[in-house]
Each structure stands twice: as C-alpha cells, then as structure tokens.
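User: We ran a pulldown and think these components assemble together. Before we commit to crystallization trials, I'd like a predicted model of the whole complex to look at. Sequences follow.
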Amino acid sequence: MSPARDRDAAPPQQPVDLGGREVLTDDDIQRALTRIAHEILEGNKGPQDLVLLGIPTRGVPLAHRLAAAIAGVEGAQVPTGSLDITMYRDDLRTQPTRAPEPMSVPSGGVDGKVVVLVDDVLYSGRTVRAALDSLADLGRPSAVRLAVLVDRGHRELPIRADYVGKNLPTSRSERVMVRLQDCDDVEGVWIA
Amino acid sequence: MKHLLSIADLAPEEITSILDTAVSMHEVQDRQVKKLPTLRGRTVINFFFEDSTRTRASFEIAGKWMSADTINLTGKGTSVSKGESLRDTVLTIDAMGVDMMIIRHPASGAPAQIADWVDCSIVNAGDGTHEHPSQALLDAYTLRRSLGELEGRHVAIVGDLTHSRVLRSNLLCLRALGAHVTLVAPPTLMPSGVHAWAAADGFDVSYDLDEVLPQVDAVMMLRVQRERMSGGYFPTAKEYAVTYGLTPRRLGLLQDHAVICHPGPMNRGLEISADAADAARSLVLDQVSAGVAVRMSILYHLLAGEGDAQ
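Assistant: Here's a predicted model for the assembly, 502 residues in total across the polymer chains.
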C-alpha cells in the first residue's frame, strides 16, 4: 500500500507538507465517498437529472469518483464535469495572478438539472460563493447541492454543505491537507 | 506584469501563460451569458490615434465581457485636434483615475513613452512600424490551436515587412515559442539590415515564395500598407500579386496540413487571392475570434492580480 498509510513515514511527494496528523486514510476517503454517493441518490430519489461538477483542483477527481460510486450502485452514468471559479474569486486583487483551470460542463448543460458541486475542503465558503455565481452564468439548475470531503468550520458566509465526508473541528491556525491518488500519488487527509 | 509594450518584455513562460488563460476565455464566447465579473469596477480606455476595426472592437468586447467599464477615444474628436500635446492628453485621462489605457499610435514608441508619464497600465495596440503584441499573441494562439505546440514548426511571414509592426511582434513571439521562421518579401520591402538581424536572432530570409511554401506548416500573409508607402516599392500591384501574392496556383504548393493566416485587413487580389482567403485552411476568421479571447487574457493578466492600485 502507499507509504502514506504509515503515520510516521513522510510521503514521497510532499515530505515537508505532510508532517501533521493523518485524520482520514485512503480507505476512509473511499468509504466516505461511497456513503455520500448513497446519500445523493437517496436525496434525489435516483440518478435522474443529476450533474456532478467538481471545483478544481481536487474537487474534480472527487466528482469523478462519486460518479463511479453512483454508477456502482445504480448502474447509471451521471454527467460529470469541472467548474473553474478563478474568474469569480473575490480575492483576485490581493493575490498574484493565477491561471484559470480548464472547465468542462457536460454537453447536456445545467438547465433544469440537480447540480451537485464537489470540493475537497469547505472552509470560509467563499469558493462555494464564487462557484454559485459561476453556475448562474452557465444556466439555471433546478437545484444546487454541495458535497465536500472535509468540513473544517470557520464559515464567513451563510453557506453549508448538504453532504459531508467528515466534520473536522479545527483552529484557524491549523492547515488541512487533502491528497488524492489522482493528483498527488498519495492519498489521505492530514491536519497540521 | 504591468504593461504590455513589446513581446520582447515577455518571458516564454509568460507568453504560454497568456495563451493558456485564453483557452479558458475562449469558452466564454460560446456561452449564452457572455459575462465574467473578474474586472468589475476597473476602467479601461481604448485610445486610438489610428484607424482600427478588429483591434479596437475586440479590446472593447474583451473589457465588457470581463465587466470592466470600457470607453473609446480617438485622436479625432478629442482635444488632440485642438492642439493639446500627447503628454497633456494622456495625463488628463490618467488623472480621471483609469486603470488601463490601450494605445494605438502612428509613432513607434509612443505607448512606451506614455507608460513613463502615467500611473495606469499601458497596452500597446500597435505603434507605427514597431510592434503589435496582442496581434502576435492571438496569431500564436490560433496557430497553436490548429497545429499543436509551435516548437519546431516552420512559419513563413510574407509581404510588406518594412512597414509591418505585426512582423516584429510575431517574429519575437514565434521565436520565443521555438518556431522556425522564414521571412519572404521583395528586396524593396525587406527591413534594412535584415541579414544581420536574421543571423543574430536565428531566422531565415528568402526572396522566393515558391521555394519556401512547400516547406512550411503555416504561411502568414501581411498586408501591403499603401498608407505608409511613398511609392516605388514595386512596379505595379499586378506584378506584386504575381510574384509575392498567395495565388490559387501557390495554394497547390502548400503541404496538406499547412494553414494560412492574415492579420487583416486583407487586400484581396493583392497579397492574398480570394481562393486563399476563403480556403478551408484559412484561419483568418479564427484569428478574429481568438482576438477577443486573447485580449481578455491580456486584461486579466495585467489588471486582475495584485501589484497595482495599492
């Protein structure tokens, strides 16, 4: 298995970053995603009209994994894409210019669909605010839901998640690091 | 990055970053709601001392789609025609609190001079026979979309090279991206000292279009700029068209995958035949559509981040 499973061994890619405590292992992540997939299907009474949109970077592989989990339960392929929110951020002026991530909206669009936004960590809520604005420019979904792997609290806007992998009480000075096999070569959630 | 005055100021990574952002911006063009909130509250002035259709319209559209307030000014109809100096005019506009001026001017170096005078960002939208950086970036973007990465690709730039600012910017941009460039023109329309320049910057020079065409991946036809000529560069328009125009016969010399660019406006029947301009491999309209996306990307890189209006 991946060396990240051993809490004392530094993972190969980010030896400095991941010095903290591992709070979710790769198996925990998969279990959480499977549960969220069931909850989404339960809440929507099936896979019809669902669209999963991941928020780059790590929301995108999470969205694809949720789609795979839903396919495993219902045998239905849910349209899945990514929603880049760089142009909608409210902190553009205080940050160095960042390059936008690629965006892909499923060909069926979002009009009349139940869009589930997928992200790794829910913190201030500002990313989700930007995603909602971006979504409004793309069309008019019949409903928008939010699925996150980790909710670490400290919201700055009236936003909450509909589906949460793990509620993680943190202090603002702590850092939560999500690493996924698809983009990091290791998998797990660490807190430092 | 505060100003965009010359391609020479950009590192290859910065060029690539502008082109990559333009890919995301291009997607906005297909949306029903063509609006991003990114530059809300920013003011952009298009200040054009020379005529323009596509550059001015696409900078204005780019600004509007990104929610900046854009205003157009021309040399005519402003106090310039009452004798106000260029310096006083731009200082006046700057004092109104604008964030960016996009300048086209018949004098080479005018935008760089203005950048020294004012606090706002300056974009060179074409200065005399010097540079036209946004055109080079959109040409590179269009070529990259159709040919893939430009490293090792061979591009011929053909036509009135003496008077062409598009040439200078394109040469710098294509060389920075690793493309091989050959300039083709009659001796009278080659920039003076071109051979020393070619030896220093690593490109080729040819006077024979028929010999070059079969080797290239793209051919960029430049406009014969009669307004900058005081006669005597070639005997007749007919002779120019026969010796250096992209005629229907020359289309047959191109490789199957080779594409045709022209920055516009085209002199049909002079440097480019109607058959070439309207051919399936002609990217002329793709260049125009890319122009908006690339200019959105330029505005984003110059205005969105930190480092200004502190």
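The CA atoms of residues 214 and 252 of chain B lie 9 Å apart. That may be worth checking against your pulldown data before setting up trials.

User: Thanks, that helps.
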